[in-house]
What we know:
Elements: E1 6-7, E2 25-34, E3 37-45, E4 51-58, E5 65-66, E6 82-90, E7 93-100, E8 107-113, E9 120-124, E10 129-134, E11 143-149, E12 162-167, E13 174-180, E14 191-194, E15 199-201, E16 204-213, E17 225-233, E18 241-243, H1 255-258, E19 267-274, E20 279-286, E21 290-297, H2 298-306
Antiparallel strand pairs: 1-21, 2-3, 3-4, 4-5, 6-7, 7-8, 8-9, 10-11, 11-12, 12-13, 14-16, 15-16, 16-17, 17-18, 19-20, 20-21
Amino acid sequence: MSAAMRxxxxxxxxxxxDVPYPCVRCFNPGAxxxxxxxxxxxxxxxxxxxxxxxxxxxxxxxxxxxEPEPALVPAERDRGRLNxxxxxxxxxxxxxxxxxxxxxxxxxGIAATHDFRTFDKFYYSEPDNRNAxxxxxxxxxxxxxxxxxxxxxxxLDRAYDIWISYSPDLRFxxxxxxxxxxxxxxxxxxxxxxxxxxxxxxxxWLVIYHGVEHPDGTDTDWQKTYRAGVMxxxxxxxxxxxxxxxxPLMSPEADYETDPTRRPNVVFPTGAIVEADGEVKIxxxxxxxxxxxxxxxxxxxxxxxxxxxxxxxxxxxxxxxDPPRSRHA
Length: 329
């Protein structure tokens, strides 16, 4: 892990044992401040592999209590799959981007809420797409979204990249532009995708994202390593990358990240909360089975972006710039 990041001593901060309803794994949480509390929407998986989003609250951002029932459950069209939420507050509303798996393809959805008790699922994308997150304010009068459209078939044109699009109303999206290609990420030869909501700074938008590396670039078996990275985007034109360090921000090293029980070597950032003093709490899924917390500061993340020569991090495998691919989600 780079010097810009610190794992919390209480990790993992949530496991399946902390969920009061049937659950075998909980991970990949969306995060926000809600009133005077920290709030997580956590991906929870039951024995039958059905998924829902659990609501967890905390006074300090480290010790969470999960509510007795899921906050958001799959609709019939979701076919039991509702996962990987990102929470963005815009004005007085909270918007939850999530991934769904309806019969006609993998899609991203958006739900709106004011109280995290009732949700209006008002948008589903075209297939195939996932890992969506909204910017916390409009840009040039339009809502903005990062996502990762993709193809599941290796013989088709590849699209495992992070894209941006804009909308006047969160329902109709256009002006699609690629922001970052997996080819530009030395530790992301399998795929990349956006993480928590972008963080606005006076130097640009800080975007934490994930990259997936496979020894031979394919997805034929579980030899993948998920890492976290960060880049800096232009404030007025966030399709323009100002800085993108070639080294990852965080790699799986702790036992709860490398645990082979489910999927070893996974760090998957999905939530970030910026404190008044500049500290950034980054919530992530570890090993596809628990929730962990790492901390940094806005200044440290900016420094990591703008002065990458000051940081080093080994990569476990050489990267094929044009690897073969197979079907995957």
